[in-house]
Amino acid sequence: MQELDDYIDKVTSLPPAPQILPELLSLLNQDDVDSAPVVRLISLDPGLTASVLRLSNSAVFAGASSVSDLHEAVTRLGFRQVYQLVAAVVGSKTLGPAQKGYGMDQGELWHHCVSAAVAAQLLARRHGGDDNLVFTATLLHDIGKIVLAEALERQYAKVLESARDQEVALLDLEKKALGVQHAEVGGRLLARWKFPANIVSAVWFHHDPAAAQPHQELAAYVYLGNVVAYSMGHGYGHRSFAIEGHHDVFDMIGVSPDILPHMMVETFANLQLVQTLFSAR
Q1: Which residues pair with 104 in a beta bridge?
Q2: How far, in Å, CA of 254 to CA of 123, rounded?
Q3: Which stretches within the chain are classed as H helix?
Q4: pLDDT digits over 84-119, tens only?
């Protein structure tokens, strides 16, 4: 654990903790949740408030009259759309910058993570999972790469090169060369940010969901969202995971590998809505 903390502590420009996400999730998981605390939480961030108001008045959601009140905007959009917008905006701030250590341009990490999150969320809606929880965990699944990219910029480039030359999983080389890998660094970072244990575990073990007990189902959704995103070409650099040896992941949520082509099509269609949400801000 200390080794993970040491890597995190080396980062000089770590983004602020996206604390609004677990707080909103906690509110939305309450029975008969009232919109007032949701509105109050969003109103603490002027940028999010403006984003929600713009979206409610966009062509997708606009009613007969424009909305200037946050409470009315939340009511018009519904909690699900509001949460997805908030997650997209917060995620873009955290994941959007270029990560030179990974050779990622601005927006590449965010685009991969949001593609995976949409795919995982669609699976969750089909199979009884908590779709907002799944979206959040999957959106943040690669946050550990922010830590490794900055803390080990020069050395990480060599790790990536070795992964390509040796044709082995980047995850294995991370562990061999650095003593840590991005998934466990990400999990530790979220734990330090006081995210709930299920999200921490799902991110920590998103490459090995069986090890995420008792949260292996959530980790399985994250894993399969990652698979769909890479299969669609929404990845970057070296393919950092391998589906071989993890066919049990499909059993964890009761799906067949045959579902993947369909999920790619459905994810592509739904990504357009997320991009609309994001551009509306």
Answers
A1: 99
A2: 10
A3: 2-10, 20-28, 35-43, 46-56, 70-77, 79-95, 108-127, 131-139, 144-151, 153-166, 170-178, 182-192, 197-204, 216-231, 248-253, 259-279
A4: 888 888 888 888 887 876 667 787 888 899 999 999
